């Protein structure tokens, strides 16, 4: 037994073995070496680096990892209860300072009868002989009764006891098919602790699969029952639905220290970088909603949550993003955002809009958010800039768009139909009166030209277009387009800017802003 304090949990990472068994996740030696280095930096205690008998490549990977990182973590190789497997695992981990051989043999009735075709006596005999064979060359031997959870309790106790007698210093209790519930997994670990006479000579380990989404919960229940090693993988990758996710277990123990009273040697700030590395090496990425390390784990999109977060992050976050390696909280702007978040982001971007400007920009933001999945900083800045570029106007812009409809195509004449709102002119007798709605339609060389013609006709100002520049503010199909126009109207050059996900609308807004300028001069 080790002299590890009783509250210290051994983190056994099997990303490179069980994780690699996940369809589409196999890794070559270079990739395994990169992940192994990251796991060492993360502070895991044991790295199960592969299954050396499976292929010369896997043998080589385990061997190189043992050689390079065997002084920073225990390097483990998996073996069936076959001499060839055990010898390959012994040889693969031999170059490391701390090597472990992990021997497994299924014990449940269904595996015994249908897969192995062995009796209980044969299973015990083979398990004992295999542990002994590994123990002759390696001090650190782990034994797993595969499908332990579905094994008859008496038989499980017998196998565990005999494996410990044969020299196993860690006994792993896999819920190979993710069948247990947390209470049931707790009970089986507790039962082993209470019933196996020599159990104090070994560390009990958990190995939970996620078929019912219970892997993390079962692992934590196992720890509460007295297990002190957890087998887990980065991002929870592994056979079928995967294994217990390392980041979830570690952060549950850290965040709920008050409840578990257990510690690990993990540098939690490395969790997110390690997760991204594994996501990239396996080509699986990191699911956006993945607990602890997904992009959404510290992102808030709804107005009420964003408002709460701005007032006190503890309202909606139980962990600090920095503690798992994120830069900070992300208040995602979109159609569920409220004024508090939009105003805070504008302030961060360096804008201090007055109430009237903010109200107009917020209305445009909501309109944009309805058309676009996410409103980025550049989008918001463009809305603000478009508003500010009209700031030279004496008052609120007199003319604004109520509705715009265009039709164009390879046949027919491009047409624009517009409804404009005319605000009562400032200082006029009916300055506080009702706005007037004007409607008109025009044709043109294209839909934008048709819009310009309709605008000129409604406002009653002739303009000559000198320059028209369109650019994308952000990337993606739903990116905001920004149009800048320069036109000659009312005896001088006027500039206008418009932004929208629709460049025809952006063009009309830009043209209208320039015409508003000419109109303001005309009014003056
Ligand atoms: C629950 C787990 O995660 S177990 C680990 C799963 N991981 C892997 O399988 C790693 C990749 N596997 C491989 O590369 C190959 O399957 C190998 C090299 C291990 C074996 O390949 P093969 O010799 O062609 O055997 P195959 O895979 O077809 O069948 C497995 C054999 O191992 C036997 N076996 C399964 N588990 C064990 C065990 N723990 N101890 C001894 N024998 C076992 C099976 O009964 C079967 O034997 P049989 O051929 O006599 O019927
Ligand atoms: C090899 C064993 C430990 C395993 O992966 C399982 O039973 O799930
Ligand atoms: Mg497994």
Automatic annotation (TrEMBL):
Residues 400-524 are annotated as: Regulatory domain. Its EC number is 2.3.3.13. It catalyses: 3-methyl-2-oxobutanoate + acetyl-CoA + H2O = (2S)-2-isopropylmalate + CoA + H(+). Pathway: Amino-acid biosynthesis; L-leucine biosynthesis; L-leucine from 3-methyl-2-oxobutanoate: step 1/4. Belongs to the alpha-IPM synthase/homocitrate synthase family. LeuA type 1 subfamily. It is an enzyme of class 2 (transferase). PANTHER family: 2-ISOPROPYLMALATE SYNTHASE 1, CHLOROPLASTIC-RELATED, HOMOCITRATE SYNTHASE-RELATED. NCBIfam families: leuA_bact, PRK00915.1-3. This is 2-isopropylmalate synthase. CDD domains: DRE_TIM_IPMS (cd07940). It comes from the Bacteria. One of its GO terms (molecular function) is 2-isopropylmalate synthase activity. It comes from Alienimonas chondri. Mn(2+) binds at residues 18, 207, 209, 243. Residues 9-272 form the Pyruvate carboxyltransferase domain. Pfam families: HCS_D2 (PF22617), HMGL-like (PF00682), LeuA_dimer (PF08502). The keyword Amino-acid biosynthesis applies. Homodimer. Its cofactor is Mn(2+). The lineage of its organism: Bacteria, Pseudomonadati, Planctomycetota, Planctomycetia, Planctomycetales. Gene3D superfamilies: 1.10.238.260, 3.30.160.270, Aldolase class I. InterPro entries: 2-IPM_HCS-like (IPR050073), 2-isopropylmalate_synth_dimer (IPR013709), AIPM/Hcit_synth_CS (IPR002034), Aldolase_TIM (IPR013785), LeuA/HCS_post-cat (IPR054691), LeuA_allosteric_dom_sf (IPR036230), LeuA_bact_synth (IPR005671), PYR_CT (IPR000891). Keywords: Acyltransferase, Amino-acid biosynthesis, Branched-chain amino acid biosynthesis, Cytoplasm, Leucine biosynthesis, Manganese, Metal-binding, Transferase.
């Amino acid at each position: 037994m080790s002299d590890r304090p009783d509250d210290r949990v051994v983190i056994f990472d099997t990303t490179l073995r069980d994780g690699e068994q996940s369809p589409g996740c196999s890794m070559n030696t270079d990739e395994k070496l990169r992940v192994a280095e990251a796991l060492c930096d993360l502070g895991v205690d044991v790295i199960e680096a592969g299954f050396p008998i499976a292929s010369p490549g896997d043998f080589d990977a385990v061997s190189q990892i043992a050689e390079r990182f065997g002084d920073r973590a225990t390097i483990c190789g998996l073996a069936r209860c076959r001499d060839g497997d055990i010898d390959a695992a012994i040889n693969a981990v031999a170059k490391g300072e701390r090597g472990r051989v992990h021997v497994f043999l299924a014990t449940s009735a269904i595996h015994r009868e249908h897969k192995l075709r062995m009796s209980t006596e044969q299973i015990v005999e083979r398990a004992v002989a295999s542990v002994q064979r590994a123990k002759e060359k390696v001090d650190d031997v782990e034994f797993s009764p595969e499908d332990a959870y579905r094994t008859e309790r008496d038989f499980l106790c017998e196998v565990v006891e005999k494996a410990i007698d044969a020299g196993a210093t860690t006994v792993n209790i896999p819920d190979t098919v993710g069948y247990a519930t947390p209470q049931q997994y707790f009970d089986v670990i507790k039962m082993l602790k209470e019933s196996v006479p020599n159990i104090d000579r070994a560390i009990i380990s958990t190995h939970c699969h996620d078929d019912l989404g219970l892997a993390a919960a079962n692992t934590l229940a196992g720890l509460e029952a007295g297990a002190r090693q957890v087998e887990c993988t980065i991002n929870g990758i592994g056979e079928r639905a995967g294994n217990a996710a390392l980041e979830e277990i570690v952060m549950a123990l850290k965040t709920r220290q008050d409840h578990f009273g257990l510690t690990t040697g993990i540098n939690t700030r490395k969790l997110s970088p390690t997760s991204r590395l594994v996501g990239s090496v396996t080509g699986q990425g990191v699911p956006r909603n993945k607990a602890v390390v997904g992009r959404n784990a510290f992102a808030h999109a709804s107005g009420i949550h964003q408002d709460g977060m701005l007032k006190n992050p503890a309202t909606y976050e139980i962990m600090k993003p920095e503690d798992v390696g994120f830069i900070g909280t992300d208040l995602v702007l979109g159609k569920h955002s409220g004024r508090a978040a939009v105003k805070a982001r504008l302030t961060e971007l360096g804008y201090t809009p007055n109430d009237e400007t903010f109200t107009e920009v917020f209305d445009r933001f909501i309109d944009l958010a309805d058309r676009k999945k996410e409103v980025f900083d550049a989008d918001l800045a463009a809305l603000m800039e478009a508003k500010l570029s009209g700031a030279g106007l004496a008052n609120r812009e007199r003319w604004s768009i109520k509705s715009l409809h265009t039709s164009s195509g390879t046949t027919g004449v491009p047409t624009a139909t517009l409804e404009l709102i005319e605000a009562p002119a400032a200082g006029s007798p009916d300055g506080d009166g009702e706005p007037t709605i004007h409607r008109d339609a025009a044709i043109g060389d294209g839909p934008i030209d048709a819009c310009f013609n309709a605008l000129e006709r409604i406002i009653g100002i002739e303009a000559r277009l000198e320059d028209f520049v369109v650019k994308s503010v952000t990337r993606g199909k739903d990116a905001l387009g920004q149009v800048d126009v320069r036109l000659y109207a009312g005896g001088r050059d006027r500039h206008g800017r418009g932004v929208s996900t629709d460049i025809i609308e952006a063009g009309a807004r830009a043209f209208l802003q320039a015409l508003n300028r000419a109109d303001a001069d005309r009014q003056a």
